[in-house]
Amino acid sequence: MILAVCLIVLAIGAMGRKVEWLVNFVLRAVMGTVGIYAFNHLLAARQMQVAVGINPLTILTSGILGFPGLAVLYGIHFFKIL
Fold this sequence. Notes:
Oligomer: single chain
Number of strands: 0
């Protein structure tokens, strides 16, 4: 009985961390997408023809890496221009 209760508590704790990870991923992905859109708009207003597209790969990158992922995406894009 004690072993079953301990396993249930461990299972709930493991699921809680997965839910937290999923929520963090979704928030980073949404904020990264908004960041890409805003930065593209800012660059277009300054007459710079640099725009990172919003697609599943860029959303996945910003979701996993967060702000450094956005920096990497724009760094790669700027590097392609050179």
